[in-house]
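Good morning C.,

I know you're traveling, so I'll keep this short. The sequence:
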Amino acid sequence: MRGLRGRLAASVIALVAGGCAAAPVAPGPTVLDRADRLTREGAWEQAAGAYGEYLQRFPESEAAARAAASRDTLTALLAARAELLRLREEISRLRDEVARRDSDLVRVRQEADKLRADLERLKQIDLKLERRR
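The tokens, ready to paste straight into the viewer:
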């Protein structure tokens, strides 16, 4: 009897262990793992897409809330990076515009100084002409 129980227990353990090993792995975790790996590697566009794929395929899973939060965070991060790039380009354009206007201002001030000098010479000429009369 004891030998039968031992064999039965060994058979049950073998079946359970074999069944666990033979059970197909759910694809959800692999998609989620890929998304997490892409995030760690800095491939944020692909990671956001992978999280979106996970949510489309497994919207009711336990990890769906985390996947949605990760996707939304990455989407916000990517939007912020795009806005930062746009603002940097705008700053560069504005700096060029300021430099051009500074150059124009220097030129206008030089012209104004020249005109003041010309006006002063004309005043002196006018004073000399009035004294001769």
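Safe travels,
E.
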